[in-house]
Records
---
Amino acid sequence: MHKHSKGFSEETKFMFFIFSIIIIMLTIMFGSMNKTNYYKIADAHASIEIVNSCDLTLEELQNRNGKLIIEKVIGEVDNFITGAGHVVDNPNYYISYAGMEGISNGNIICSYMIYNPDNNFEDDIIYRFDYIIDARTVEFED
């Protein structure tokens, strides 16, 4: 091991985790990893798309037709008590962090929403992962 090696960042580890989940889901969808199924999984991999929230349209969600769409959202916590937050790229868009532990006002959160590929409902999120990427806090004035 090299002395200058620091290992993977927390965000990189999180991305490995997400891709591991995707591989597990594909394996479940297509069965065991024999030679025939390997090619089915490789073909399915081309139908996985990670999209930033500001680039994702309602039309894309309603017409995914089996495509696995993963939405990446960068948000900020506005009220840690209620979990209210907003999307950084579009402050008019609300995002909830209710039930997320250890958050404070001003925290920047990276969220990944994995939409169900088996239907085209725009609100059918089968997995959601939230990760604090900036733990800055904002104090309220009295």
Note: The first helix runs from residue 10 to 30.
---
Amino acid sequence: MSYKGYEAVIELGNNKTKINSQIFVLDRKGTYKLDSNIVTVLDASTGIAEVTTTKNGKKSKVEFSFIEEAVIENEIDLEEAVILEELTFDNNEIGIMNNDRPGDGGCTWCFSHTLNSSTWFSHLTVAAVQTALSIAFPNWIVPIAVAAEIVRLNLTRVWNTTRVYYRYQWGVMTGERRHTWIYTDSFKTTLVPGTPYPVEEITNL
């Protein structure tokens, strides 16, 4: 069965975003007919998604938390860190690393900790998935291809691993760098298609 959709994203203010979705299905005559209307409201401050679906004259509503609280692992005391690793990625990017302590001179990216989390997408459309990921990773311009793959694969949840680094210049923290990998399974063996990895977010502090 073939589907297509029209979606509009509306910023409501107060950290809330509404996505209006119209889903059309291809009938036997080769014509797309309206199948359902879906209104999704995502609250970035609470991590709550509210999805209201109207189909065949009937309305249903579900509410769930789409952001799981991140768990910190592999945390390093930066005041004690001396030997820092060099980062090498598939895109040939090399992170700036040296053996300085955070209080020393120079500009250094220091590994701090790993975050493990997950994001839920039950009942969400492509635009809603993209918006939810944008809330979970605010400094990443989420490719529509990633959201489309999540919907295509019928994933109700993805699992995230994020490595967090802080930049120091003359002993002052000046930036945060996050590298994230997004997986289709809890064992973290298969990456969600649609983007090169790691996903990078940099925030100047």
Note: The chain has a mean pLDDT of 85.
---
Amino acid sequence: MEWAAQTTSAAINSSKKRYQIECERIEDVRLQLKASIDKQTEELKRPFSEIEKLLKKPLNEKDSDSITEQLLKDLDRITAILVDDAGKTRSNPFLDWERDLTKAIESITNSVLDALEDGKSISGNKAFEYANPKDLSVLEALIQGLINEGYREYAGKKFQARTQEEKDKLRKLNKQLNALSYSLEPIVNDVARKVLDREVGRIKDAMKNLFVFHLESLKKTATDIAPDLGINFPQSKLITVDSTLRPKFSFKGGFPILPESYTEEVIEKTGTRRFLFFFKKDVYEARIEERSGDNADIPSFKYLGMSWKLQKSLGNIEVYTQTFDWLLKQIDKFNTGVESFQSEVVDRYQARLDRAYQDTQIDYDSKMEIWQPLKEEAEMIASQINQLGAEWKNR
């Protein structure tokens, strides 16, 4: 349709007088099309850009929950533009990912806490069905090590280490709790990848459908601006969505060990003395000496679980940041393709107009009798095709 529309229009406007006017109109069309595409693309990006700004704010564990809450509200606002093949709104893959991942990770961390409290093995637990067997063996060994070290006895209490043996035990508990949290990372990331891979497929489908509807809007605008150029954006070339998202969660579970000073009474023998002339008695003297020790608040089971939950929220936000950066890049890539295509269409029309101008300087009037009816027929066919497309879309 582009060839027919442009060739007939170029022939009609190829007289010396109309050629110059048409060249000026083409430049105006270029500007109008670019302005329209930029405006509509900005509107397309706006909800995603607003979420990206929220995600780029400095974060810490304390405000991760409030950021996540606001994020989910903003995500709910874009549900309306995530559509299926019938053009109907469907469940939001971003929200589904958040729900499914939270459920999967909390199932893992709760199972670990239960094992620490009850001493039960995590082997065969469905929460770890996606875990690498080697990672699972490391995790189970660390759980058993903490149980053997008496973590259940110390959890939620203050540990004051005065002797070297007590100091060594405190540091060992801290090291094992940290190791336990680190060992969760590969297991949680495996689960996150599986959940995200499933939802990314849905996100890609939703974005493709969004681009289809966006192209329909752009086509209508282009037809209004330049009906004679036959601009029909090719979906197969312009709509390409790729992804390389990889979640990365990190966990820590240790505790700060603080040095402390304390005093201790020390009794020393200072000599002997006689009494009743025949007997000797040892003499002792008491004095106060300053000592150094360590103390720490050992995390309770509840505190450990809350800490993992907060760290999981920070990981979620990081994945959302990656996702929306990727989505905005997809929109920019799509927009670049659209701008390039419409520019090429206008360039082709300009080239056809230039050729027609050169060819029709001889016997212009006689050739008009041929091209005018062909132009009218091409416009009628284009109108019928657009009408059929609209009817199919509304079914």
Note: The chain has ten helices and three strands.
